[in-house]
Amino acid sequence: MLVNYDTVSASDIYKLMSQSVIPRPIAWVVTESNGVVNVAPFSYFTGLSSNPPTMLFSVGHKSDGTPKDTLRNLRETQKCTVCIASEAQLEQLHLSSKELEAHVSEAEHFAIPHTRPVPGYPPMIEGAPVAFFCDFYSEVDLGESKTIPLIVEIKSQFVDVVCITDEERMTITFDPIARIGKSYAYLGEERTPPPIP
Ligand SMILES: Cc1cc2nc3c(=O)[nH]c(=O)nc-3n(C[C@H](O)[C@H](O)[C@H](O)COP(=O)(O)O)c2cc1C
């Protein structure tokens, strides 16, 4: 089957892409505005470059057409903390995707514990194996699109010591959650690459 994207609806394109470009990592993004801690997951997410250390996640709009809180807060404060959730945090991560009013904190509403290891940046979710403390870098212009890809620059990274398997070689291991379509997946077994002759 060959699907010409000019002939299918935006929702079918979403279904096709989100089940084909897989597995997607999930950015569990914490932002703040006026003391309200906002938490939300985003799976149109990837690393861009290690130099400068940058990542990208795409944020859409709320059902009423206004920018999602994450987008608004990032534009306002220029800061975000991107956590990577472990398998044990699946329920908290999923709950935090609920569309709440801007003045309501997902962290408070769902009792998601958080802690602030880096002053000047939003808190990270307690128990996350990894978190990145980031400055807003730029937005990607996709014309009329209501989805805005946001580039953020990593200024520091937290790694839970229990995930560090070899400190000298900077080797870390944990159990992340991925997204496939609208489902979740765990990574399972890692494979060593075969030698290239
Ligand atoms: C696992 C998961 C991944 C998601 N990925 C995205 C995404 O890439 N982009 C997006 O706009 N919304 C995504 N969502 C929906 C947002 O999390 C949801 O709209 C959330 O309410 C946004 O919160 P905010 O208004 O506090 O920023 C995802 C939801 C889930 C459960």
Describe how the helices and strands are arranged.
Elements: H1 10-20, E1 24-25, E2 27-33, E3 36-42, E4 45-50, E5 53-59, H2 69-77, E6 79-84, H3 90-95, H4 106-109, E7 114-115, E8 124-125, E9 130-139, E10 148-159, E11 164-166, E12 171-172, E13 177-180, E14 183-186
Antiparallel strand pairs: 1-13, 2-3, 2-6, 4-5, 5-10, 6-9, 7-8, 9-10, 11-12, 13-14
Bound molecules: flavin mononucleotide.
Residues 26, 38, 40-44, 58-60, 68-70, 94, 97-99, 179 line the site of flavin mononucleotide (FMN).
**Unreliable stretches, pLDDT < 50, 5 or more residues?**
none
Work out the helicity level: 10-25%
Task: Report the sheet with the most strands, covering strand number, pairing sense and barrel closure.
Answer: 7 strands, antiparallel
How many domains make up the 3D coordinates? 1
Order of helices and strands: HEEEEEHEHHEEEEEEEE
Reported by name, the CATH topology is: Pnp Oxidase, Chain A
Quickly count the helices.
4
What would the principal axes of the Cα set say about the shape? globular
Provide the list of bound ligands, each named once.
Answer: flavin mononucleotide
Question: Any key phrases for this structure?
Answer:
197 residues, alpha+beta, Pnp Oxidase, Chain A, 3-stranded antiparallel beta sheet, 14 strands, 38% strand, binds flavin mononucleotide
